[in-house]
Amino acid sequence: MEHYYRELVSFLSARLGSRQAAEDVAHDAYLRVLERTGSEQIEHPRAFLYRTALNLVVDRHRRQLVRQAEPLDALDADSRLHSSELQHDLQLDQRLALMQKALDELSRPCRDSFLLRKIEGLSHQQIAERLGISRSLVEKHIVNAMKHCRVRMRQWES
C-alpha cells in the first residue's frame, strides 16, 4: 500500500491546495488503514485508502469550521466568510459529504465498481476480474451508482 502514497498526496494536494495539508491527511489515512488491517483483510486497499482520505478531508474541514465559530458580530465583520472562494470550498465540501452519503447507500459491489472506475481508473474488464463478476454487471453497477448519486444529490440539494 505504500506505493500509493505519492499518488494520494498529489490527489489531496489538488483538493486541499496545500502539499503539507495533503501529507498530513495522507499520513492520517495510512494510520487508519493500518490500524484496520490488523483486524481484517481489506479487499480493495487503494479504494479504501482514498475513501478514508476523503472522509478525513471532510472531517478536517468540519473541525476548521467549528474552530472558526465566533460571535455573529465578528462573523459579519470577517470578509473571509463572504469571499467567493470560501463559499465555493464550503459547497464542494458539502457536495462531497452528500456524495459520500449517497455512495454509502449502495450495495458493496455497486459502490466498489463505481469507486474502482472513478477513483482508481480501472477498466470495466479489470474491475470485473478484481471483483469476480461479469463485465456487463460492472457496467450496470457503474450506471446504477451514477444514477443513484445524481438522484440523491438533486433530492438533498433542493
TrEMBL record:
One Gene Ontology molecular-function label: DNA binding
Gene3D superfamilies from the UniProt entry: 1.10.1740.10, Winged helix-like DNA-binding domain superfamily/Winged helix DNA-binding domain (1.10.10.10)
RNA polymerase sigma-70 region domain span: 2-64
Any Gene Ontology biological process: DNA-templated transcription initiation
Keywords: Sigma factor, Transcription, Transcription regulation
Domain RNA polymerase sigma factor 70 region 4 type: 98-149
Coiled-coil annotated residue ranges, if any: none
Classification via InterPro entries: RNA_pol_sigma-70-like, RNA_pol_sigma-70_dom, RNA_pol_sigma70_r2, RNA_pol_sigma70_r4_t2, RNA_pol_sigma_r2, RNA_pol_sigma_r3/r4-like, WH-like_DNA-bd_sf
Listed NCBIfam families: PRK12527.1, sigma70-ECF
Name of the featured protein: Sigma-70 family RNA polymerase sigma factor
